[in-house]
Every structure is written in C-alpha cells, then in structure tokens.
From TrEMBL:
<dbReference type="InterPro" id="IPR036291">
    <property type="entry name" value="NAD(P)-bd_dom_sf"/>
</dbReference>
<dbReference type="GO" id="GO:0000166">
    <property type="term" value="F:nucleotide binding"/>
</dbReference>
<dbReference type="InterPro" id="IPR006095">
    <property type="entry name" value="Glu/Leu/Phe/Val/Trp_DH"/>
</dbReference>
<dbReference type="InterPro" id="IPR033922">
    <property type="entry name" value="NAD_bind_Glu_DH"/>
</dbReference>
<feature type="site" description="Important for catalysis">
    <location>
        <position position="149"/>
    </location>
</feature>
<dbReference type="InterPro" id="IPR046346">
    <property type="entry name" value="Aminoacid_DH-like_N_sf"/>
</dbReference>
<dbReference type="InterPro" id="IPR006097">
    <property type="entry name" value="Glu/Leu/Phe/Val/Trp_DH_dimer"/>
</dbReference>
<dbReference type="Pfam" id="PF00208">
    <property type="entry name" value="ELFV_dehydrog"/>
</dbReference>
<feature type="domain" description="Glutamate/phenylalanine/leucine/valine/L-tryptophan dehydrogenase C-terminal">
    <location>
        <begin position="188"/>
        <end position="475"/>
    </location>
</feature>
<keyword id="KW-0520">NAD</keyword>
<keyword id="KW-0547">Nucleotide-binding</keyword>
<feature type="active site" description="Proton donor">
    <location>
        <position position="107"/>
    </location>
</feature>
<dbReference type="InterPro" id="IPR014362">
    <property type="entry name" value="Glu_DH"/>
</dbReference>
<feature type="binding site">
    <location>
        <position position="71"/>
    </location>
    <ligand>
        <name>substrate</name>
    </ligand>
</feature>
<dbReference type="GO" id="GO:0006538">
    <property type="term" value="P:L-glutamate catabolic process"/>
</dbReference>
<dbReference type="GO" id="GO:0004352">
    <property type="term" value="F:glutamate dehydrogenase (NAD+) activity"/>
</dbReference>
<feature type="binding site">
    <location>
        <position position="234"/>
    </location>
    <ligand>
        <name>NAD(+)</name>
    </ligand>
</feature>
Amino acid sequence: MTPSNEPSFRESVDMMYNRAVALMDLSPGLEEKIRVCNATYTVRFGVRLRGTIHTFTGYRSVHSEHMEPVKGGIRYSLGVNQDEVEALAALMTYKCALVEAPFGGSKGGLCIDPREYDEHELELITRRFAYELIKRDMINPAQNVPAPDMGTGEREMAWIADQYKRMNTTDINGVACVTGKPTHAGGIQGRTEATGRGVQYALHAFFRDPKGMERAGLTGELDGKRVVIQGLGNVGYHAAKFLSDEDGCLVTAIIERDGALFDDKGLDVEEVHRWISKHGTVKGYPDAPLETDGAKLLEAECDILIPAALEGVINLSNAHRIKAPLIVEAANGPVTAGADEILREKGVVIIPDMYANAGGVTVSYFEWVKNLSHIRFGRMQRRQEEARHQLVVDELERLSADTGIGWQLSPNFKEKYLRGAGELELVRSGLDDTMQTAYQAMAEIWHSRDDVDDLRTAAYISAIGKVAASYRAKGI
Ligand SMILES: NC(=O)c1ccc[n+]([C@@H]2O[C@H](COP(=O)([O-])OP(=O)(O)OC[C@H]3O[C@@H](n4cnc5c(N)ncnc54)[C@H](O)[C@@H]3O)[C@@H](O)[C@H]2O)c1
C-alpha cells in the first residue's frame, strides 16, 4: 500500500486539484470553496449478531452541493476511513461535472469486511446503516443518492431502497433514493456492467485520438494489445471481459488480493472469474501460473495497465518500475500524487479515474431519471420508432401499388429496426456518447495548451470550470 512518506488519499486528490487550479483563473475564495469537503457525517451503530451486539462505524461525506442531489457510492471495506470517503467524495464532484451528470459529489463507507458475514447478517447491517443515513436525509432521492462501490452491489442497493420505502411510505419517488438496484427493483439494464463498459469506451475514445496514441507511443488497434488488470471485481471483470471478448485484447495478467495469474498468450477472463467466484481466491487455478506477490505484476511489460481495485497501489515505491505506456484508472485514486509526477516524467499516459470510471455514475443518472419519470426507459423512443417503422411500411405499400412491383421488407426487418430502441441499447449508446464527449473536452485542453501536459490536469480543468460556473450562477 501507499508508503507512509506519501500524502494521504485526500491530500493526493487536493494536490492534483491544486496543480490544475494553478493554471486556471479562479478567485482564491472560489478555489477553496470548490476544493474543501462540505461535511462528513460519522455514525456508530450497533447490530445484534450471533448473540452479541457488534458496533460498526460508517461515514457519508458530502463534498460539494453545487448541484443536488449529491451522488456517490457506498463502500464496504476494512480500509474505510474519513480521509478516504472525503477523497472519494471530491472525485465524485469532479467526475459528475466532467461527464455532465447533474449531481454534486458524495461518498459513503462502512468499516467492515463483508466476507465475514452471511447474507442475513449483511442485510441487518445494511438496513441499520441505511436507517441512520435516511433519518438524517443523507439518503434521499432529492438530496443524496448512493450507488454501489467496492464491497457492495445491487443486492445492498435493493435493501437500501426498501428501507427508504419503509421509512417514507408516501414518497412516490422513493425508489430513486439509490441507484445500481436490480432491474426487478427499479434498476436499469446495463448498470451492473456500466463502469467496466465505460472503461472500454474510454479506451475506444483514446484509440481514436492519434495525438494521444502518439504521446503514449502506441500504434494500431486494441486488437492484440496486452492488458494487465488489477482486481477482478465488478469493474475489473466487466472491463477485462469486454476488452478481451469484443476488442481482441490479451489479458496477460490478473492481479487479485492473494496473488496474480499470468499468461503471455492471454488468460480466459470468464474461467478465472468463475474460479474466483467459486473458491474466493485465484490460488489453485489450474490453467495459469500464480505469482504470490501479485502487486509485482503491476510492473509487468504490457501495453495497457488497468488498476481496478483500490487506491494508492501505484506509489513512490513502484512508480519508477512501471513499464506500461498507458494506465487506465478504473479504480479511484490508484496512482498517488507522487507517482503521478514520476509517471508523467517518464512519458506514461494516464487516463484518469474521474473520466475512466465515470460509466457507473453516467448510467446511475439514467436510472435516477427513469425512476423519477415513472416510465420504462426507452418506452417513448420505442413508440416513436414503431411509428417511423409504420411510415416505411406504408411507403413501400404505396410504391408497390404505383409500380406494380411487390416491394417487401425482409421478415426480421422490424425486429432489427426496433432493436436500437431497447433499454439496454439506449443505455449503451448514451454511455458511449457521454464518454466520447467528455474525452473530446479533455483532449482539446490536453492538445491545445502548452502548459497542460497530461490528461488528468486537463480533466480537472474541464471539471473545475463547470463546477465554478455553477457556483457563480448561484451567486456564491
Ligand atoms: N462499482 C462501481 O460502479 C464503481 C464505479 C466507479 C468507480 N469504482 C471504483 O472501482 C474500484 C473497484 O470497485 P468494484 O466495484 O469493482 O469493487 P469490487 O468489490 O466489486 O471488486 C474489487 C476487487 O478488487 C480485489 N482486491 C481487493 N484488494 C485487492 C488488492 N490489494 N490487490 C488486488 N486486488 C484486490 C477484490 O478481491 C475484488 O475482486 C474502486 O476503486 C471503486 O471505487 C467502482
């Protein structure tokens, strides 16, 4: 983990923020207002488990309310602390601004290793944590909307939504109090895969940028590129799966908490994922060698390094040994401020967290809108497409009558025509469009300004500019 001579996660985020702000023309007061975290609530609550009361510590931090509701995941991990949630909440503010999701930034965490509890116990703990946050309006569809993060998923989000409904029976918008829910409980198709899908779209956008590719010293397509990925959880698994199955990348190493698997010819992501799900470890996987010091493989030769587990894994102790020319920060804060400087000097290109993992919040936005509109996402579009399809059918009938030639559409034309109007397709195309637009905004700053030599600073400049405009419009 991060060596003790390095700044904390929150300090690291602030240093990166300061680096960007120094290149902007903001008044000192506004500079500080945007940087600081508005409030962090700490809660300690007891739950009776296995005959005794266990006390848990949780946090919900609100970084910026320039837009409401504020948004950000809830993390379950033993490493959770105030500094971490504040850093993550700040990143949420910048991320939402960068991809123009109309939210402020927030984050929550519970200091717990979820693997130590069974499902029933986790439900009791989650409902109790949610109760504490709901009664203080720190979970609320209009004010603060959590989502999954490390250690949580759609199951926990369904419990939170249900807890909110129990406590607010007359709130017709209650289901919008949290995103990342299962589809049968108000979720949206494509949310579970969204962050990994966004990582894939971020790489597509980067590979379409010749100047960016040149800076990284990369050529050609994604096909055949060697990818090392750390963390085969929600984000890492989906990113690795899409990049290998759909783009032809070779996933040459998978680093997990208890070791790393590697194979220059490419690992079978699905098989490794199945193994981990069944055995809870990469150990014993029969089809690839294991390196017990997994983090060593962050330094392996590859084209693309994707840290998708936790923060601070690329730090002063290993940054100078990183060989990948391109790092995609699927995790939040995987590169410390000190490592960032070393990597920049080495010419390594980093696609920064606030952009690379923004797929999750983008699709969460779609879910929230779907919940508030009380209509199936895409239903209106489908109706429009059906009407357009009917126009084509009518036109062909008229042509056939006029010309005497029996024009007919192929039997599966309607199905193919309407396929693009399904919920999943709309979510994917909306996400793709968002990732492309945000990349262009960053790349324009990166390529046009002599004083900006990295994508992270460009991302901060783009994001901070939008947050500042929002504060100015409010008259603050
Ligand atoms: N879930 C989301 O939608 C989302 C959205 C944006 C950003 N993120 C960020 O992505 C990262 C991963 O989140 P997730 O939702 O995939 O979490 P997850 O809990 O689903 O998966 C995390 C994975 O990392 C592994 N891991 C933990 N410690 C490790 C270590 N020391 N070395 C190697 N592997 C380790 C775990 O075993 C697990 O497989 C986090 O930084 C999170 O903040 C997640």
